[in-house]
Amino acid sequence: MKPRSMTRDPIATARTLNEALPFLKRYEGATIVIKLGGHAMGSDEGMASFARDVVLMRQVGVNPVVVHGGGPMINAMLERLDVKSDFVGGKRVTDAATMEVVEMVLSGRVNKRIVQAINAQGGRAVGLSGKDAQLMRCRQADPALGLVGTPSQIDPTILRDLTSAGAIPVIAPLGYDDDGATYNINGDTAAGAIAGALQADRLLLLTDVEGVKDAQMQLVTELTVDNVREMTEAGVIAGGMIPKTQTAVDAILSGVRAAVILDGRAPNACLLELFTEHGAGSIIRRS
Predict the structure, then answer these.
(1) What SS3 string covers 154-220?
(2) Is there a domain that residue 6 lies in?
(3) Is residue 15 part of a domain?
(4) Domain of 196?
């Protein structure tokens, strides 16, 4: 008989499970929307770790819904195919040729990589985009940017059907307008809108920073909506953190109980946030 491995401290493992029990009960039946950023996807090992976390969440009664980005992968493919892009105010103009590549990368390569990773860990992931089952209707965000959209109406019926059947939805942030045109939607914005429509318990924004920093560049672990507004007005929240915190605030005002900005590159980031006392990253609540 092969001896059992003792490479890990079994007492510490048992203690961790014991301490997690109240949180497992707390989130049983809860809907957790997870935005997986392009930079947070990392290596195959990191993707497998994320997938195990999501499968574990599903197995303990949590209903995870994954929304992903893919900016770095889109940029790489545009360069590889020699698709030239124009920029307005530092933002890429999404014309028809660019949109074709965006849809190919997001709905194809990126979406299916995540689905495959989750299924390889024993989950039942289903990939779709906002164009499927009338999930995400949108409007043009800025005519100067072309086919870039912002959500105008979310129909979460298909997501509820999938989670009720034990599946894990994995969503590419593409939407459609009244004329049937396809639009690229910012992944954070899409995740926030979907979380609001689902009245999710948590919106987890996995990114490549550990969270919101104060003026002394120290991590702020808990904030309110008013704190975010004050820090933004003071210039403490700046740059790329502004749209992330705004997404969190919009989601909370739409009915999400709390949003968390955390480092998706950290091992087991989602589990640390949900099932430990100290959590991870910066949690934002209404008050």
Answers:
(1) ECCHHHHHHHHCCCEEEEECEEECCCCCEEEECHHHHHHHHHHHHCCCEEEEEECCCCCECCCCCEC
(2) no
(3) no
(4) 28-285
Is 1 inside any structural domain?
no
Q: Hey, what are 30's tokens?
A: 């809860």
What's the pLDDT score for residue 240? Answer: 86
Task: Measure the CA–CA gap between 95 and 20, rounded to whole angstroms.
Answer: 48
Alpha-carbon distance 268 to 16, whole Å?
A: 13
Tens digits of per-residue pLDDT, 219-276? 999 999 999 999 999 999 998 899 999 999 999 999 999 999 998 888 888 888 888 8
226 within a domain of the structure (yes/no): yes
pLDDT digits (tens, 9 = 90+) for 103-147: 999 999 999 999 999 999 999 999 999 999 999 999 999 999 999
DSSP category for residue 250:
H
Q: What are phi and psi of 267, to 5 degrees?
A: -60, 135
Burial of 247 (0-12, 13-18, 19+ CB in 10 A): buried
Terminal alpha carbon distance of the chain? 57
Domain count, the chain: 1
The per-residue pLDDT for 264 is: 85
